[in-house]
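hey all, quick one before standup. I had two proteins in the batch that finished overnight and I want to keep them in one place so we stop losing track of which output belongs to which input. First protein below, input sequence then C-alpha cells straight from the run.
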Amino acid sequence: MRIDTHSHHKRAGENLAFVFFMNLAFNIIVIAGGLATNSMAILADCIHDMSDTISIAIAWLMERLSQRDSTDRYSYGYQRFSILGAVITSTFVIVMAFVILYEAIPRLFSPEGIDAGGMLIVAVVGIIFKSISVHRLHDGETFNERAILFHQLGDVFEWFAILILSVVIMFWDGAQYLDPFVSIGIALWLIFNLGRNLYKSVEVLLQKTPNHFDVEEFKSRVLAIDGVRKIDDFHAWSLDGIDSVLTLKIAVDNLDMQDEIKKEIYSISSKYHIVDITIEFD
C-alpha cells in the first residue's frame, strides 16, 4: 500500500521561503548595525545571520526537492532530501556557532568601545524580525523547520540579551565585558540544541525505527489477528522523520485470509504515519 503525502513538505517549503526573505532583508540591517556600533555581539551576529540565510536557503531547496514524486531512480520519492537538508543545516549552524566562539572569546580580555544607543535600535529591529520568523515556524513538522526554528529562536534570545546589555552599558561602562559573554552563551545554546536536532536527523538517515513507533505494541496487535501464527520478518523506518515505511512477513494459517488480514494490519498501521506498507505471507 502506498499513500502519496507531500502536504507537510509543501507547507514547510512555504514557511522556509518566508523566513528566508525575512532573514535576507535583516542581514542588511545587521551588517550596517554591527559596523556602526562596533558591538561584538552584533558583529558576531553578522556572521550568524549570513549563516542563517545560507542554511535557510539550503533547507528551502531540500524541502522543494522533497515534494517531487517517485521515479525509477528514487522509488520512494524525494522525501529524504528533507532530512538530508536538516543534517546539512544543523551541521552548518553548529560550525558557525564555533566561529562565533572563536571571535568572542578574545574580546573577554580586550573589550572595545560600543555604541549602546545603536545596539538598542538594532536589537529592537532584530526582535521584531526574528519573532515573526519564529511564529511562522513554531508549528512546523519537519526536521528542517525545527533546525531553522531553533536557530531563529536562538536569535530572539540573543537580541533580547543585546537589548538588555545595551541599556546596561548606557549606565555602566564596565558592562562592555558582558558583550562577548552574550555571544558565547548564545553560541553554546545553538550548539546544544542543533546538536540534538542533528543527532535525531542522523538517526532517521540510518533508518532507525521511528521513536513514535511502539514495536512491541504493533507486533502484539498483529499477532492477535485471527489467522496470524507468527511474524517472520519486520522492518520499520522513517523517510523524513514524519512519514514511515513498513515491511512485514507473516506466517498465516490460511492463505485465503490474506485480504482480511491485510485490512486489519492497515488499520493498525494508520496511527503510525506509515505511507508505504509491504506485507508478505507464508
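OK second protein, same deal, sequence then C-alpha cells:
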Amino acid sequence: MFKRSLLSAAAVAIATLGVVALPSAAHATPARERTATVAADSQDELHPELDGLRIRAVDSADVYLVLDGKRHLIPSSVTYNALFRNTDGERLVLTTENITDGGPLMAYAYLARSTDDPTIYLVTNVSKREITSAAMDKFNFDRQKVRTTYPWVLAALPSDAPLT
C-alpha cells in the first residue's frame, strides 16, 4: 500500500514538473518524430501551477523562469544574479519543451522601486510588473537587489499584470 502511494505521489510530482515520458523501446519512434510530437503538443500548454519555479532540463545549462504558465529563458548569469537570492529551488526536469515558450527575459532584467513608493517591480521586456510580498518569496527574488530609481523612470514603462 505504501509503495503504491509513493509511486502515485512520484507520478504527480513528475507531471507537475512537466516531465514527458518517452515511449518504451518496443514502441520507440525515431527521435525526430518524438521531437516533432512534443513540439506540436506543447504549443498551447500553459502551466500556471508552475509559476515562480526556475527549471532546467537535465541535458541543458539553460535556466527558465515560469511566469504566467510559460517558460522564459534567463539569458545570463548576470540577469540571474540580479533577480534571485540563490539557486535554491531550481528544479531539474527531463525536458522544458512541454511548457509553452514565452520568450526570454530581457538581458539585465532587474527589480526596482521608485524613491517615493515602496512598491517593487520586475522590469523586463520594456515593461514593469508589480511584485507582491508573497510573490517575492514564491519566486525567490532577492530584496537586497532591488534598485531605487526616479519615479518618472518607472512611470514611463507600461504595466503588465502583477506577480502574486
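Flagging for whoever picks this up: Residues 1-42 have pLDDT under 50 and may be disordered. Residues 147 and 164 are 20 Å apart (CA to CA).
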